[in-house]
Structure of Dienoyl coA isomerase:
Amino acid sequence: MSSRYAGYATLATSMPAPHVLHVELAREDKRNAISTELWMEIGKLFTEVASDDDVRCILLSGRGPLFSAGIEIQPGGSTFTGGAGAARPRLDPARLGVQSRVGAHSWAAAWSSLERCGKVVMACVHGGCWGAALELVAAADIRWCTKDAYFVAKEIDFAVVADLGGLQRLPKLLGNQSLVRELVFSGRRLPAAEAATAGLVSRVCLDKEALLREGLGMATEIASKSPVATFGTKTVLNYSRDHSVEEGLEYGITWNMAAMQNGDLARAGLALASKQPPSFPSVAGREAPQGEVSKL
């Protein structure tokens, strides 16, 4: 695996298949609770991935007995650790509010980096997925989970308003305002079977082993596609989600004015005609190194 991702303290990375990066939340001793360090590393990693030609699909999972327990709560109720939790000078409420707003934007930007990285992100959830972790996976392209998984929008029980994208993305993912409001107002658990019925996840697997095995199979399939096509498709999907059908069509047609002139179109046609698997060069026009392949 490229040493590019070797220096993270709260995330573990591997390349289990060509062009597939596996990212694991690696604070299992803390139930993968989201600390300031973990938040910063997620934003940094997915920003780095955006310019990494070797990566075409990302598997996101958690080590230990559950995906994540959500924001790490400190004694006294603080949700910040490390530098962000350092003592601050006495400030008036307006200045404290501005500082809080700046911090919240930084957290939200880290979660949105999953959408903005240009690579297909597949979240594989086992066990519990609480609060901010639910908001994190809501920014993924694909969500699968285990039979015993459950999802909780827990912010209401801490007397706060979720502000990392959950209130914006969940209504669009589920398409059911009543269910979304039921979940965020009550803080109840959404079990795997109901999550699948509601559209939050698209597959429920027997256990974590099956989830990662089947997830890797899907990620490998996606990574074998043209990186130009997957990047463009993700970009147009994200744009169309937030605009009207007509605006989305205009954007997609304009995008294809240039994108349709790529050499992968001919490569795909030749592969289909010869019944051979296609091989697509990187976005930079070279066959990207496949890196060290390790088992999940």
Remarks:
- DSSP finds ten helices and nine strands in the chain.
- Confidence is low (pLDDT under 50) at residues 81-85, 288-296.
- The radius of gyration is 20 Å.
- Residues 93-116 form the longest helix (24 residues).
